[in-house]
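note to self: dont lose this again. the chain is below, predicted strucutre after it. 291 aa total, dont forget to put it in the shared folder this time
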Amino acid sequence: GINAEYMGLWLNLIMDTLAALALATEKPSRECLDRLPFYRAAPLLSNRMIAFVLGHGIFQLVVMLITLHFGHDFFSVGPCDPKHGSEHVPASNTASGNCPGNLKHSTYIFNIFIWMQLFNEFNARKLYGEKNIFSGLTRSPAFFLILIICIGFQYLAVMYMGAFMHTTPLNRDEWLICIGIAAIEIPVGFLINLLPIKPWTPGPNTDNTQGLDAKKRKAIYDAKVGAGMIKENQGSGNLTKELSARKKWAIAGTKIKAQARVVKAIKHHKSRRDVALDVWTPTSLAYGVIY
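---
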């Protein structure tokens, strides 16, 4: 049967630690500037994240159940070995002469499941319904490094660590079968990204500043009014008049450029000794903008 202790440990490393490290080291793309900022009251898991988890979870569950109950005949795993009988399935051959739960059968289950996690790491790179999951791969050399490490260890676990991982070596065709089945994760991810999933939006009575004290709520309201996101006569929770994402970023970019011109003007005056500005004051900043 499957050595659940060691296989489970390796699986947790791939799905949690190594996968998180591979995805977290990817540099942000310029497409981030085209997306709206997140609402404070938005849930931690977006609607598309939930669809991602449910879609891939159901697909992997179906594949594992089919492999578990029908894989011994489909893969022709061979007769039972009394030394490696399954704890849950009697060590007896089926009518086709194959043994459910023998060492090769459990190796197929283990190998296919691990490879599905590796392919699913490509799908997990995109969280906003992007169709091309391979775009921007060059931004994360660590992703390739971790992927190569996982593939290398999985090969060693199956081919040379049978006593430790309770596996048996597979030939080239058997490896290709495992990888081919697991690679279906890529088109499944593409189909999930095609689903018309609407993003979360606050309702008319949603308080986007819930949990903040009055001073912070007033500061957020004043900032939105100053940036042109809402009108002054609107309530602090009314977000129906928000501008588009590009316009918001344009407003912020304009303010940053204006501040940069002020700093440049101040440095220019200091170098020429025309004025002496040791501290920033409203008068000096205004002089820099005029200049």
